[in-house]
């Protein structure tokens, strides 16, 4: 991909917390496609997401969306400029209903592709639960709501941090279908994943993060079929079932 046709271009990005540098000259670019970032725990994946959306202020480098420089801007400005965020842990409001979560952004979404009704069409399960509070939802329903809320920004790029975390396999299927649907409509999705099986279903391009940089890129098939790559880059042990989880993923089995 040349910078000319990149939707998102990240160049030499640096960021950290106080004196500790976490992102250390990270670069990649992507178009209107899905791309996964995988890597061991603590390599800086969440920090990358937070730096892209403005929750962590970069200390150097550039983030450009469709050519417009976004690094250093406030999170609200970056959201409106076109990067929506589905954060790790979903960050919903326990006392607000599904409807109330979505109606907060409904006015901005009016007349555009993604409205609350369109979100309910994508996730019929959410429509059935529309009057339930955030705290009453299963993990899968919460994740659908977090994705739905991000969609209402009608942004060209959605960043998702560990979307499959804690979800039952059937709900991961719903999520994978939704991401494919979005990409087919021209929305770009950048997804950070600990779960390699989920990562390769969500995206063909797999960027491997090591110590705050993108160290290598593989296709999903390459990563799934080459245990030595999994051991080297993802810390998947030789006794683990091939390609199930990177680092110390803890999940599955939650009620759908
Ligand atoms: N708020 C913070 N203050 C200080 N250090 C932090 C903070 N958040 C993360 N770190 C440190 O930054 C490094 C990268 O963390 P980050 O969460 O970005 O990695 P990650 O690849 O997403 O890991 P994980 O998969 O475990 O969430 C770690 O060493 C972590 O301890």
UniProtKB/TrEMBL annotation:
<dbReference type="GO" id="GO:0005524">
    <property type="term" value="F:ATP binding"/>
</dbReference>
<keyword id="KW-0813">Transport</keyword>
<dbReference type="InterPro" id="IPR003439">
    <property type="entry name" value="ABC_transporter-like_ATP-bd"/>
</dbReference>
<keyword id="KW-0547">Nucleotide-binding</keyword>
<dbReference type="InterPro" id="IPR003593">
    <property type="entry name" value="AAA+_ATPase"/>
</dbReference>
<dbReference type="GO" id="GO:0016887">
    <property type="term" value="F:ATP hydrolysis activity"/>
</dbReference>
<feature type="domain" description="ABC transporter">
    <location>
        <begin position="8"/>
        <end position="236"/>
    </location>
</feature>
<keyword id="KW-0067">ATP-binding</keyword>
<dbReference type="InterPro" id="IPR027417">
    <property type="entry name" value="P-loop_NTPase"/>
</dbReference>
<dbReference type="InterPro" id="IPR017871">
    <property type="entry name" value="ABC_transporter-like_CS"/>
</dbReference>
<dbReference type="GO" id="GO:0015658">
    <property type="term" value="F:branched-chain amino acid transmembrane transporter activity"/>
</dbReference>
<keyword id="KW-0029">Amino-acid transport</keyword>
<comment type="similarity">
    <text>Belongs to the ABC transporter superfamily.</text>
</comment>
<dbReference type="InterPro" id="IPR052156">
    <property type="entry name" value="BCAA_Transport_ATP-bd_LivF"/>
</dbReference>
<dbReference type="GO" id="GO:0015807">
    <property type="term" value="P:L-amino acid transport"/>
</dbReference>
<protein>
    <submittedName>
        <fullName>ABC transporter ATP-binding protein</fullName>
    </submittedName>
</protein>
<dbReference type="Pfam" id="PF00005">
    <property type="entry name" value="ABC_tran"/>
</dbReference>
């Amino acid at each position: 991909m040349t910078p000319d046709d990149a939707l998102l271009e990240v160049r030499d990005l640096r960021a950290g917390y106080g004196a500790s540098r976490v992102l250390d000259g990270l670069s990649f670019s992507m178009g209107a496609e899905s791309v996964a970032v995988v890597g061991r725990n603590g390599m800086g994946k969440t920090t990358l997401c937070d730096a892209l959306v403005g929750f962590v202020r970069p200390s150097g480098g550039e983030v450009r969306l469709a050519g417009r420089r976004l690094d250093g801007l406030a999170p609200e400005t970056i959201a409106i400029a076109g990067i929506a965020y589905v954060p790790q842990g979903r960050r919903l409001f326990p006392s607000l209903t599904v409807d109330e979560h979505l109606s907060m952004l409904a006015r901005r979404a009016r007349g555009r592709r993604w409205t609350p009704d369109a979100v309910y069409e994508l996730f019929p399960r959410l429509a059935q639960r529309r009057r339930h509070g955030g705290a009453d939802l299963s993990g899968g329903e919460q994740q659908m709501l977090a994705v739905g809320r991000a969609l209402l920004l009608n942004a060209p790029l959605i960043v998702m941090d560990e979307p499959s975390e804690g979800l039952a396999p059937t709900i991961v299927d719903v999520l994978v279908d939704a991401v494919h649907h979005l990409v087919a409509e021209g929305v770009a999705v950048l997804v950070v994943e600990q779960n390699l099986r989920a990562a390769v279903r969500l995206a063909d391009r797999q960027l491997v993060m090591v110590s705050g940089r993108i160290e290598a890129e593989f296709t999903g098939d390459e990563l799934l079929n080459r245990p030595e790559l999994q051991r080297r880059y993802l810390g998947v042990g030789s006794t683990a079932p091939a390609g199930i989880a990177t680092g110390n993923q803890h999940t599955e089995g939650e009620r759908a």
